């Protein structure tokens, strides 16, 4: 089955001769994070409707890990992830390197691949990711997971698209 980006971008139509998606990378993002949304909106503008990048909101009630490289909600909330058309997942700063390169603006992240700068940027991202929720005025991950499980009656590990037997 062909994955279709939720954005309704040009990638929504599939090639009938292939099961491969039209997008080159699918970004898993937190749609409840204001800074994440700012980045997603920037990337959508840079994509210019070409459908090179698919955007998947992990906070959406129907988020399904099975359609997103097996990355469950809790894992995706901890670090940014993306899925390649073959199902391979990438995470952390590598996600940005790949997306920016695909969109033709790879020069923005080029220095993050250099020997000294790369590890420094990777470490800064780790610090940011560990503090992202509090820096954006949100509860900690344990609280979000508990609220999600209560409010939506879902199995947090399997994703809210799955049925729960509690």
Count of discrete structural domains:
1
Distance between the termini: 30 Å
Structural class call reads alpha+beta
Helix content: 25-40%
Report on the biggest sheet: 4 strands, mixed
Tally of DSSP β-strands: 4
- List unreliable stretches of 5+ residues: 1-17, 153-166
Mean of pLDDT: 84
Query: Could you tell me the strand content as a percent range?
Result: 5-15%
> What is the overall silhouette?
globular
Q: Write down the secondary-structure element order.
A: EHEHEEHHH
For the biggest β-sheet, the strand order reads 2-1-3-4
Radius of gyration: 16 Å
Determine the number of helices (DSSP H or I, runs of at least 4 residues): 5
What is the topology?
Layout (H helix, E strand, L loop, with lengths): L24 E5 L4 H14 L5 E5 L15 H6 L2 E3 L5 E3 L1 H10 L14 H19 L5 H12 L14
Parallel strand pairs: 1-2
Antiparallel strand pairs: 1-3, 3-4
Please provide a written account of the structure:
This protein is of the alpha+beta class and 166 residues long. It is 37% helix and 10% strand. It has one domain. It has five helices and four strands; from the N terminus they run βαβαββααα. The chain has a four-stranded mixed beta sheet with strand order 2-1-3-4, covered by helices on one side. Helix 1 links the parallel strand 1 (25-29) and strand 2. It is globular and about 40 Å long. Residues 1-17 and 153-166 have low confidence and may be disordered.
